[in-house]
Write a structure and sequence with these properties.
This protein is α+β, with helices and mostly antiparallel strands and 341 residues long. The protein contains twelve helices and 16 strands. The protein has three domains: 117 residues, Rossmann fold, CATH 3.40.50; 144 residues, D-amino Acid Aminotransferase, Chain A, domain 1, CATH 3.30.470; 62 residues, Dna Ligase, domain 1.
C-alpha cells in the first residue's frame, strides 16, 4: 500500500515563528513512518523562502524557542533545498499546517492551498480568518448568545474615556485583536497603566481589545472532528510564571500547572464542553481546534477565544487533552489527517 505523502508547513511570517517550528518539529517526530512519507518545509521569518529539509536534519536543529527575540533563522540560506508551491503540489498528498498566528492561522495559507487544490489539515479559510480576528469572532458569538467578556474595541485615535465609561475602573485585560499565544497581552491594574498596555498591543495591529478583568479558573477545551465534533477532557490552567497564561507560561517548562481533568463538577464540565462545540460549529471549524474559557467566580463559563491551529509542542494543551482521552500523539495526528482527507 502506497504511503500518504504529508508536507508539514512550519515557521512563517508571524510573531509565533519559533512556536510554530517547535509544533512542526513535533509533528514530524511523531508522524507514523509506516503510514506517511514526511516532507518537512520550513518557511523563513519573511515568508519568502520555503525550504524542504530532511526529517533527521530538522530533529537535530537547536531549540527554536532559544531564538525568540532574535532575527536568526533556524535554517540558514542554502542549507536546505528551496522549494515552491509547484513542488508541494507534485510531491504531497496532503499538507499539515503547523503554523500559528498571522499568515498561517488566519486563512491566508489555507486560501493559497485551496487555490492549488491541495488538501490540508484544520479549519478552512473563513473559520481560520474568524478565529484569528477576535473582534469578528466575538460578534458572531454574541449573535449566537454565547457568553463573552464585556469589552471595548479600541483604535489608536480613540479616547481612553470610552474604556472608563464602558468598563469602569481597572483592572482590565488588554490584547491585540489578531494574535495568538498571548502575544502583546497584558493586565492593567491602574488607570495610568492603560496607555502603556495599549501601546504594546498596537505593536501588532491598529485595533486592541480592552476586556473586563474576570476572576476565576482558566479552562480550555480541545475539540476534534468535522460534522460530529468531539470535546476532549477539559484542562484547568494555573499559571506559575505570570498573572495569566502568557507566552512564558505556555512555552517554558514549569511555566504553568495544567490539571487534567479540570477540577470542576461533572455538570459544569458538560456545560463547558457543550459551549465549546457550539463555538466550533458557529464559525465552521473542522479537524481540530481549542476553545479557551474563564469561569467567572468559578461557576459561569465565559469564552475568551478559539485557537484554530492550537499548539502542538511538548508543552501544548491539545496533545495533553488527547492523551487524557486515550489518544497518543501519533494517534492524534492520524485523526487530524483523516479528518482533512
Amino acid at each position: 500500500m502506497k504511503k500518504l505523502s504529508v508536507a508539514v508547513l512550519m515557521g512563517g511570517k508571524s510573531p509565533e515563528y519559533e512556536v510554530s517550528l517547535v509544533s512542526g518539529r513535533e509533528v514530524v517526530r511523531y508522524l507514523d513512518r509506516k503510514k506517511y512519507e514526511v516532507l518537512p518545509i520550513v518557511i523563513s521569518r519573511t515568508g519568502k523562502r520555503w525550504q524542504m529539509i530532511s526529517s533527521d536534519k530538522l530533529l537535530t536543529l537547536p531549540d527554536p524557542l532559544r531564538l525568540k527575540g532574535t532575527i536568526w533563522e533556524i535554517i540558514k540560506k542554502g542549507e536546505a533545498e528551496t522549494t515552491e508551491l509547484s513542488q508541494i503540489e507534485k510531491q504531497a498528498d496532503i499538507v499539515f499546517i503547523a503554523m500559528h498566528g498571522p499568515n498561517g492561522e488566519d486563512g491566508s495559507v489555507q486560501g493559497m492551498l485551496e487555490l492549488a487544490g491541495l488538501k490540508y489539515t484544520g479549519p478552512g479559510v473563513l473559520a481560520s480568518a474568524l478565529g484569528m480576528d477576535k473582534l469578528m469572532f466575538r460578534k458572531i458569538l454574541k449573535a449566537e448568545k454565547i457568553p463573552v467578556p464585556k469589552f471595548v474595541a479600541f483604535r489608536k485615535d480613540d479616547s481612553l474615556k470610552i474604556v472608563f465609561e464602558k468598563l469602569g475602573n481597572p483592572p482590565y485585560f488588554i490584547k491585540p485583536h489578531n494574535q495568538g499565544s498571548s502575544v502583546g497581552a497584558s493586565i492593567v491594574k491602574k488607570k495610568n497603566g492603560l496607555s502603556k498596555a495599549l501601546k504594546l498591543a498596537f505593536e501588532y495591529g491598529d485595533l486592541a481589545l480592552v476586556d473586563e478583568y474576570i476572576v476565576g479558573k482558566e479552562i480550555t477545551c480541545g475539540i476534534i472532528g468535522n460534522d460530529k465534533p468531539i470535546a476532549l477532557p477539559l484542562i484547568e490552567i494555573r499559571p506559575l510564571k505570570g498573572e495569566f497564561f502568557n507566552y512564558e507560561s505556555k512555552y517554558t517548562e514549569s511555566g504553568a500547572e495544567e490539571i487534567v481533568p479540570a477540577r470542576i463538577s461533572i455538570n459544569l464540565t458538560k456545560k463547558v464542553q457543550d459551549i465549546a462545540v457550539k463555538v466550533y460549529r458557529a464559525i465552521g471549524c473542522k479537524g481540530f481546534s481549542r476553545v479557551d474559557f474563564i469561569l467567572k467566580n468559578n461557576r459561569y463559563p465565559i469564552v475568551l477565544e478559539i485557537n484554530t491551529i492550537p499548539g502542538l509542542t511538548p508543552m501544548s494543551l491539545l496533545p495533553k487533552a488527547a492523551k487524557a482521552a486515550g489518544y497518543s500523539y501519533s494517534q492524534l495526528l492520524y485523526k487530524i489527517i483523516k479528518y482533512a482527507i
